[in-house]
Amino acid sequence: MQDITQSIEACAAYYGDDADAVRQYLIEGQKRALALPNRGPLRFKDNGDIHSDILEAYSTYGFYIFENALRDEEVNDLKNDLDAMRDNFPTEMGAPTDAKGRPALGADTTGFTLQWAKPLSDPLGGTQMANGRHQVKLFEPKPGADAPQATPVYLGGSLQFSKACVVTYAHPGLLKMAEAINGSDFTPFHEGLFIKDAGLGAAVSWHQDGDTHWDNPDFDEDIHGFNFMGQVYGSTAVNGVWVLPGTHKHGRVDIVKLMAEAGTERLPNAVPIICNSGDVVINNRQILHGSFANTGFETRVSVNFGFHRRSSVLNVHGAGIHAEAVTFDEDFIKNRSRLIGLAIEARKQRFHDEVPYEYAPDANAKDQPVWNDAAMAALKNYNLMDLSI
After folding, report:
1. Could you give all domains of the chain from N- to C-terminal order, each with its CATH number?
2. Disulfide check for 33: which of 233, 235, 271, 340 has CB 3.0–4.6 Å away?
3. Is 29 exposed, middle or buried (CB count within 10 Å of its CB: 0-12, 13-18, 19+)?
4. pTM for the structure as a whole
């Protein structure tokens, strides 16, 4: 794990009279996180299924850290693509061109792509955006005088911009985990890159991702699906996501009440998700989670992609957060799910030594997926069909 002593001190300094309390919170949270029995390599039973210890720990805590899940070459591919994408970012929020005068990344798309925020701000907290699920606003430290007016925080629809992200999307062990949680006919959700730059990264207020099924009579801990979060550089108590373990099981949380009872935004018993470059986190979408502004010295970039049960999305009207709210019928789901087969074919070409995952809905399909440059180009605006619930 990274030594983040300096980042903890830098973070605490932003809080003035609360500096000692913040320092202690970060240190104690880190200790609690590392003491939890919910991390380790991907492990399988003799029949190839995910080991039951992993499933039990995930069910208990609502998240699990797969250590060293990504190959070194895979992480390097992601870093290279990330550098290329950053080089093509707009010169500022909303600009049509990059610093070299080229059309900026995402400038010709209509879906949910590059999102910006004021450095160290909490842009969603306490607003009605994202259906009002970010009920409270977190502390917003004052950025340095040399900080830009806005900083990138999230890139939605990442598969259309990065072949490396497509390849990681088809990681056979991770897809086996998706099958274990959501069944062999699991469906996609949404993909993106969370960008938490050192000294600039915005906060994401405490929230639960699920939106559609809280009052469903068949509600259970997995009905809103999950996200994988692949770590490009690592995740710490300062720059990482914090979660309140176990909250994925109990329905919608009154966050305003919870913070009032705690007397602080630093919720007791919450823990940071701490992991290294190449680790992948599975995070239940119903768990209460959030992240503080990144006032430290380490950048975090998380490669996010999630999956649902088919029964959670079939003939369900979408939440409208990541894409237009429509009803997801069989054809809609089939069209959106084609990404899984395409990604599997892309990964076969990148890693010949792996046993690829076999996606059950494609097993008897007449038209088998084919990955090539044309398939990559055809991904433009694919995220207009995200299965947001």
Report:
1. 5-385 (2.60.120.620)
2. 271
3. buried
4. 0.97
